[in-house]
Amino acid sequence: MGRKSLLVSPELCIGCRGCQTACKEWNQLPGSKTENRGSFENPPELTATTFNRVRYVEVASSSGDPRWLFVSQRCMHCGDAACMNICPSTGAINRTADGAITVDKTKCIECKLCASACPFGTPKFDAQNKLSKCGMCADRTASGLPPACAKTCPTGALRYGEREELIALAKKAGYAKIYGENDLGGLGTLYAFRDEPKLYGMDEKPAMPESLIFWQNVLKPLSYLGLGGALALSLVHLVAVGPKKDEPKNDEPKKDEEVNKNG
Amino acid sequence: MADQKNARVIRKANAFEILNHWVMAISFFTLSATGFAYLFHIAGVVSFFGGPMGMKTVHNYAGLVFAASLILTIFSYLIEALSFSGDDMKWLMKGGGYLSRNAAVPPQGKLNAGQKLVYLMVLAAGAAIAVSGLYLWLAPEVKSRTLSMHFLHNAAFDVYLMIVPFHIYLASIASPGSLRIMINGTVPLEWARKRHAKWAARMT
Hints:
The structure holds two protein chains of two kinds.
Chain A lengths: L3 E5 L9 H9 L26 E8 L5 E8 L8 H5 L6 E3 L5 E3 L9 H5 L6 E2 L5 E2 L5 H4 L6 H5 L5 E5 H10 L5 E2 L9 E4 L17 H31 L16 E2 L5
Chain B lengths: L1 H6 E4 L3 H26 L2 H6 L2 H32 L3 H8 L19 H26 L5 H27 L15 E3 H7 L1 H7 L1
């Protein structure tokens, strides 16, 4: 069994937000008061109790009629996940056999580094300051069930399955570029876009922060290489040159008598 | 009278300096052990320090102790470390006499040139690690600075990991007679005249 993914097809989405409701139900998350911001979109971003949401994008089209793009948004479940790389706590952020990124809140140390590292702004924190985000319904997928959002989607805008099969399916349906096919080690949330990702409110080229890459490839290994190197050089010196031997024969004084006080 | 001369000692570190040195050493080792556990997810170390949140508490408060200790070192060593002379330069060019068995080096003050350099590095990297650590602890909200502070914290840690082993080795096995400075604070006068001639001359 290979890696599994979610394929989001905004062209098929009718913006019913059944996925948002199903997610809250399965994950037992409380509802939050909605607010009219001039759009049906609510809430305006992911929260600690909103693991997925539908982004509403209205664009003018050549025919003159406005075009509504509904983009279902959640954790991207990156193949090379910045949150997981930077997380200092053992076992707080984990990857399932299917490739989903899950959180063990009991091991989260509330440092929030994941939020600074994530290129998508996914990590949110609950009232206890613990990381709270989509885990691709790992408790469902472990039993062979699709995530709640995909299960409830009435139009096929959300499909869950083998990653390679979903990519092949989307390409066959005429989507030339699958968003997330190769970025960040391949995303676990794929998008079948007709137009530029920008139009759907997505980064053209999502990437790991440069400083995080340098930290991971240089600073992190340098900690043990530097320590090991310093110890090894000391040992080489000890063997090759040895300690200074300019001590007087009887260097241990018989009686410690200070000749001068130094304050 | 030769015997009596050998028996004479001279104080190189006072009680405060010795105590502060060990406070810093112990907090440094605690911070390094927990730091390595953070970097490489060493489950055994996490359990030893009482689980994820327990280890965070230990790491943060040991950091406070370390920072306080670092500030106190300023009063002991900074002025001396900044007084860099021509002899210090020559001492460094000769590798402090550590590169061969019988090298002669220029006379040194209370701290030799190597010790001065190490102290300045410890102070600079320590300041960086303390400031970035405090930031990560107290202001972890999503800000562009968090990543650079995390970067700085790790870079400064790497500097420590590369200088502390040399410091420990050079101040113990490689230079017999040094270790007692951090135990009872005194050195034999003869030893001081060989290693820190300018200082010994000033003190006698």
